């Protein structure tokens, strides 16, 4: 029987979110909060592994109280248990402080039920760093397997897992000891519509909620802003793309005009780089 923990995050829907033109920061109130899409695939993969091998699927998140909604979404997908750490001391955490806090929560979970496998989404759509999963693995001294797009086997008795890791020109097959941590690609599975029983269970579900004081042997200097060496000096929205140049006239005239434009740009590039046109 496996105990699989999926680490998840509630994020703003970046398809809808707007930027504040005065502060150049994300206006999080402009978009609904959703379960990070990569994390949905992580939970779905955990549920599929439970179906193959038996066991329990837990989910863990760090966030403000409304992040309970993300845990309930995971229960809809099929997770068994949900855990959330929430406290003002966690506010402003970068990936280093986040991985530390989640590690402490994982250690507390493991005191009740040892963890065989941790699954994270490849990255979050609001940060795009992909650093939290490997950071957790490093702190727990377990192998991190990143960019996983297929889980071939998980053997709880022989204590190993075999996965495919996505590469630019294919994939590689990797065998790792258990416990280990996987960060998964979206293509690893398709997340189906939730079943009615899971939706009803999720609507009533109350996760385990812990504050800083509930976590074992925690160093408060490694939490939140205090524990975050990353500094964001400035944020700005990219400029809107300018309209292109419309070429008119006969086909031969358009081709000649296009060549003139390309040659002129090549000369400008060569001059800027210190070379000459060739």
From TrEMBL:
SUPFAM superfamilies, per database record: Adenine nucleotide alpha hydrolases-like
Signal peptide as annotated in the record: none
Domain (Electron transfer flavoprotein alpha/beta-subunit N-terminal): residue spans on this chain: 23-219
Q: This protein's superkingdom?
A: Bacteria
Which metal ions or organic cofactors does this protein require, according to UniProt? AMP
InterPro entries linked to this entry:
ET-Flavoprotein_bsu_CS, ETF_a/b_N, ETF_b, ETF_beta_N, Rossmann-like_a/b/a_fold
Q: Which family does the record assign?
A: Belongs to the ETF beta-subunit/FixA family.
- What protein name does the entry list? Electron transfer flavoprotein small subunit
């Amino acid at each position: 029987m496996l105990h699989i923990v999926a680490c998840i995050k509630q994020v703003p829907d970046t398809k809808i979110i707007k930027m504040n033109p005065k502060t150049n920061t994300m206006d999080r109130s402009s978009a609904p909060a959703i379960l990070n899409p990569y994390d949905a695939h992580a939970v779905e993969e955990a549920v599929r592994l439970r179906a193959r091998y038996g066991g329990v699927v837990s989910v863990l998140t760090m966030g403000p109280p409304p992040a309970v909604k993300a845990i309930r979404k995971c229960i809809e997908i099929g997770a068994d248990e949900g855990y959330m750490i929430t406290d003002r001391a966690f506010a402003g955490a970068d990936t280093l402080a986040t991985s530390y806090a989640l590690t402490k929560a994982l250690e507390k979970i493991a005191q009740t039920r040892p963890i065989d496998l941790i699954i994270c989404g490849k990255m979050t759509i609001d940060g795009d760093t992909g650093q939290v999963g490997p950071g957790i693995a490093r702190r727990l001294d377990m192998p991190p397997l990143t960019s996983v797009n297929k889980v071939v086997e998980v053997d709880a008795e022989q204590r190993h897992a075999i996965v495919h890791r996505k590469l630019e020109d294919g994939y590689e097959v990797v065998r790792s000891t258990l416990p280990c941590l996987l960060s998964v690609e979206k293509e690893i599975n398709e997340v189906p519509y939730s079943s009615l029983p899971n939706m009803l269970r999720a609507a009533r579900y109350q996760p385990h909620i812990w504050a800083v004081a509930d976590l074992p042997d925690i160093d408060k200097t490694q939490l939140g802003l205090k524990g975050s060496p990353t500094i964001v000096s400035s944020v700005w929205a990219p400029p809107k793309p300018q309209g292109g140049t419309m070429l008119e006239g006969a086909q031969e005239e358009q081709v000649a005009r296009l060549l003139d434009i390309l040659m002129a740009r090549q000369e400008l590039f060569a001059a800027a780089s210190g070379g000459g046109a060739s």
